[in-house]
């Protein structure tokens, strides 16, 4: 079976594929429909790009320069693995007229290194450190799409959404925090058509895994025994880290642990049932069965009853962001926020908490008026339609691209559904 994340199947003619893709791209930009030969991952990305207001003749914006860029890179976790990236990919990039690029979790390029002439050529389309290459800013591209989907991906030639990027081919893989599983950014190889080979995607995947292993070795050893931690932001199913092990929880178990972590005094069965279920016809037997299964996952002695409560403190990434917001550390809070809380959950108490956390964070960003922080939110999947944030961003940093996106968003919200049938 053909790997859907690889751009060209074995034996495909690259020149012919470029011609087909260009015709498909023109058809999409003119009529909003995607012809069948286009890969599903690319077609979906084109649709997201269009909904985000990206134009096919746009360009990337450079957001960080000079001292601001240097300070941001120095503090970023991926700075610790740049020597490894250079060791594994530097020679390959330079000898093959390619570029090694590393972006953060918001698609902002941190490092772009490699063949000098290729780097100068890439600079003409702002493929440079400090430029935002998120999918919502410049459309389909390997580093931006890899971060958006949290999956390694290859993007070939006219699969790129913006026309000036279509002479290029790239492959990128996300890099995760080995302790929490949070996306830190992506590592990318960019160059010519030769990178459309499946080996280039496997190569960046292997490099990303090596980086995660290296980060795990660099993780500080705490002198005290760490208690269990729950990672629930930006995930439909939470991760429980305990005794050095990571357990992926079901959605319902994620909801239960999250709610119990916020009520150390415990919750009665009736309180927990109201917090979890919209449907009043759900019986207490259903909840008791879920709790029995959760006890098996947690092990003996962790989940007590009458009332239901945890016998050990459980730290969560939600409370970490809340503490940072309360302390006024808006930049740190945004960095620690990889996305909405259990976004697929419909549990009433989780929905309220999700909204309260997001509203608190976005309100702090708007009040701060920092264009970089506002852009991080606006270009994230959860912020691409956030009119208030885009208005604040346009006021703080009124570039042509930002004003155009704001105008497109205002028009879309006034007449919704224009792209719904794309």
Can you describe what's shown?
- By secondary structure, the protein is an alpha+beta fold.
- It folds into three domains: 205 residues, Beta-Lactamase, CATH 3.30.450; 88 residues, Arc Repressor Mutant, subunit A (Orthogonal Bundle), CATH 1.10.10.10; 98 residues.
- It is built from 17 helices and eleven strands.
- It has a five-stranded antiparallel beta sheet, sandwiched between helices. It has a four-stranded mixed beta sheet with strand order 8-7-6-11.
- The longest helix is centred in the middle third of the chain and has 21 residues.
- It is globular and about 70 Å long.
- One of its GO terms (biological process) is regulation of DNA-templated transcription.
């Amino acid at each position: 079976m053909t790997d859907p994340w690889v751009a060209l199947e074995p034996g495909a003619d690259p020149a012919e594929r470029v011609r087909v893709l260009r015709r498909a791209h023109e058809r999409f930009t003119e009529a909003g429909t995607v012809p069948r030969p286009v890969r599903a991952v690319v077609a979906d990305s084109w649709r997201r790009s269009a909904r985000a207001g990206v134009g096919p003749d746009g360009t990337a914006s450079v957001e960080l320069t000079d001292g601001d860029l240097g300070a941001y890179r120095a503090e970023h976790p991926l700075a610790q693995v740049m020597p490894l990236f250079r060791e594994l990919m530097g020679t390959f990039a330079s000898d093959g007229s390619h570029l090694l690029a590393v972006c953060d979790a918001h698609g902002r390029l941190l490092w772009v290194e490699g063949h000098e002439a290729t780097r100068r050529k890439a600079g003409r389309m702002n493929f440079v450190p400090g430029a935002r290459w998120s999918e919502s800013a410049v459309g389909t591209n390997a580093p931006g799409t890899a971060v958006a989907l949290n999956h390694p991906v290859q993007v070939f030639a006219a699969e790129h959404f913006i026309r000036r990027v279509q002479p290029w081919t790239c492959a990128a893989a996300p890099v995760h925090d080995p302790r929490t599983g949070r996306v830190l950014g992506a590592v990318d190889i960019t160059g010519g058509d030769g990178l459309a080979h499946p080996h280039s995607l496997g190569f960046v995947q292997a490099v990303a895994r090596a980086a995660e292993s290296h980060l795990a070795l660099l993780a500080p050893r705490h002198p005290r025994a760490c208690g269990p931690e729950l990672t629930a932001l930006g995930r439909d199913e939470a991760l429980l880290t305990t005794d050095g092990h990571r357990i992926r929880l079901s959605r319902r178990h994620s909801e239960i642990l999250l709610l119990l972590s916020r009520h150390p005094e415990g919750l009665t069965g009736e309180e927990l049932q109201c917090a979890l279920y919209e449907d009043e016809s759900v019986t207490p037997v259903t909840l008791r069965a879920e709790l029995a299964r959760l006890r098996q996952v947690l092990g003996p002695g962790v989940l007590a009853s009458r009332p239901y409560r945890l016998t050990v403190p459980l730290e969560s990434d939600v409370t970490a962001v809340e503490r940072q917001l309360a302390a006024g550390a808006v930049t740190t809070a945004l960095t620690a926020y990889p996305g909405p809380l259990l976004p697929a959950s419909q549990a009433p108490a989780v929905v309220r908490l999700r909204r309260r956390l997001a509203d608190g964070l976005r309100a702090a960003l708007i009040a701060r008026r920092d264009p970089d922080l506002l852009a991080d939110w606006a270009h994230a999947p959860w912020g691409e339609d956030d009119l208030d944030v885009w208005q604040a961003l346009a006021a703080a940093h009124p570039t042509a691209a930002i004003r155009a996106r704001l105008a497109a968003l205002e028009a879309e919200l006034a007449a919704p559904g224009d792209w719904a049938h794309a």
